[in-house]
Amino acid sequence: MHPRDDILHAIRTPLLVTSIVAIIQALCWAGNPAPPNQEPSPGAAGEKLVKANDCSSCHALDRPMVGPSYDDIAKRYRGKADIADKLAAKIKQGGSGNWGAVPMIPHPDLTAAQLKQMVEWILAQDSGAAAQPEAPANTYIYTLADGTTAKLDFPLFVQGRQQVTKDVFHGYEKFDSYCYRCHGQDATGSETAPDLRNSLKVGMTEQQFLSVAMAGRAEKGMPSWAGFLSEDEVKEIYEYVKGRSLDLVPVGRPPSEMD
């Protein structure tokens, strides 16, 4: 072999090997394409539907709210015959009785397949969270116009100032945006709906206030606010109305810590 041929052979050999390796890699990649997007599991699909609807306005995973927790529902019904169909019907049609007097809002637009996925997810819940004793709530004492005092488990005002907290102010804003149309400016009531100050004066609790707001009262023309207002937002409205019921929060726009 001519010396020049030896040199060309030495050059071409690694190039040939590199080309063969590249071809093999390309063929392997072609034979193993990236996996297509997989369909979500039934559990994931059910959880997504639960979170996309207004369920979280009335239910939490491991604590009761307006309605029972998902954990408690699963513990009561898991393994019972035909329970999936019964729970699906309850979600679709609404109603009350099994967990108290507060009615569950109907969801007529959900399909049978969607209801099945949601119920499967709910019945699979078991957070394993042990019930913890509630920490003692802070107490805030306010002197009323008649000289008596009121004890609250939330602050109305910023300490040392006559400015309402941001939570109370947010409650005022929400009330003044949505609730005043029926319950009157400054929560004074109207011909359409009652004076909420009086409702709180005669003993309506925060939990009852939350339940009524979320579930509504269809027989009296009150809509459900579940899915529109969150639990925290309704609690802020409650705090504002509570301040008004004690004549501690003034009419109109109250001075706020955010001013």
So what's the overall shape?
A: elongated
- Low-pLDDT runs of 5+ residues are 7-35
Largest sheet: 2 strands, antiparallel
Overall strand count: 2
What's this model, at a glance?
This protein has 259 residues and is mainly alpha-helical. The chain contains nine helices and two strands; from the N terminus they run αααααββαααα.
Describe this structure in words.
This protein has 9 helices and 2 strands. By secondary structure, the chain is mostly helical. The chain folds into 2 domains: 42-123, Cytochrome c-like domain (Cytochrome Bc1 Complex, Chain D, domain 2); 140-245, Cytochrome Bc1 Complex, Chain D, domain 2 (Orthogonal Bundle). It has a two-stranded antiparallel sheet. A hairpin with a 5-residue loop joins β1 (140-143) and β2. α2 crosses α5, α6 (166-183) packs across α9 (231-245) and α8 (206-215) packs across α9.
Which key phrases capture this entry?
single chain, 259 residues, mainly alpha, Cytochrome Bc1 Complex, Chain D, domain 2, 2 domains, two-stranded antiparallel sheet, 2 strands
Protein topology:
Layout: H1 3-31, H2 42-52, H3 70-77, H4 83-93, H5 112-123, E1 140-143, E2 149-152, H6 166-183, H7 196-201, H8 206-215, H9 231-245
Helix pairs in contact: 2-5, 4-5, 6-9, 8-9
